[in-house]
Amino acid sequence: MTLPESITVVTEPAEEFLNQKQLVDYRSEREDCLSWLLAFGKEPKKADGYALGTVKPRAYRMDQFYRWIWEQEGGYTAQLSEDYADDWMRHLAQEDYSGTHQTNCQKAVKMLFKWWEHERGGSAWDPEITFSDVDSSSPKDYLTRDERTQIRNASLEYGSIPEYSNVTPAERDRWKQYLAQRFEKPKADVTPEDWDRANSWKIPSLVWASMDAGLRPVEVERASLEWVDTDNCVLRIPKRDSAKSNESWIVSLRERTATFLE
């Protein structure tokens, strides 16, 4: 499996620590691990992998764990052990880290050991200590009511241009130059259809439906027209596309959102 470019296989701190041969070995282990997590990690027997948005941040914390091991051992090793994992948890508990960071690090190490168990013949890790994510009950990066309204309104303005028939020839020429740059095509090839394309409902539909449904980024990526039921103002999200639930689910939409989607 080819890893997405957005995942950093070897971080700069790790690369600085390792010699050339160690780097080749570590990169190989990381590629095997991350590829397996994306393809099989969630439910190995069903070949159901974790979402990229889940693996990407945890991959960095796994790298932190490896580097902590190297510091303790005074050199490189790709070997994992439950003792290493428990020792790192004790280290995190003694440092001034937030409960969220500690919990996320533990989740990353659990994920790493899941791969270790299935692909390297290791054992699952049952942590000696667990962390309380004291911040988990508070929404992270939440939007206020006013901010949500501003975002919805901004989506109606984003990229919009005047109607083709409502501008003078001189203004139309300037807008053609703008559209040529925006759509990366020669100015002479710009047509009235490009005006319609610039004023499409794509952005408002994505923004309003995502906010109505509380979609996660991976669900936005998976979204398809088959979800949409404008007659009943709902999205019908099948089990295979749901990021967290093991069941299909139906979520209500505003009538205005359904109109945009239609």
Short description:
The protein has 262 residues and is mostly helical. The chain has eleven helices and three strands, in the order H-H-H-H-H-H-H-H-H-H-E-E-E-H.
Task: Name a few traits of the molecule.
262 residues, mainly alpha, DNA polymerase, domain 1, three-stranded antiparallel sheet, 54% helix, elongated
Determine the CATH topology of the domain at 12-120: DNA polymerase, domain 1
Helix and strand pattern: HHHHHHHHHHEEEH
Major beta sheet, specifics? 3 strands, antiparallel
Radius of gyration: 24 Å
Shape category: elongated
Which percent range fits the helix content?
A: 40-55%
Q: Output the strand order for the largest sheet.
A: 1-2-3
Strand content: under 5%
Question: What is the quaternary state of this protein?
Answer: single chain
**What CATH architecture of the domain at 12-120 do you see?**
Orthogonal Bundle
The stretches of 5 or more residues where confidence is low (pLDDT under 50) are: none
**CATH class category name of the domain at 12-120:** Mainly Alpha
* Protein structure class: mainly alpha
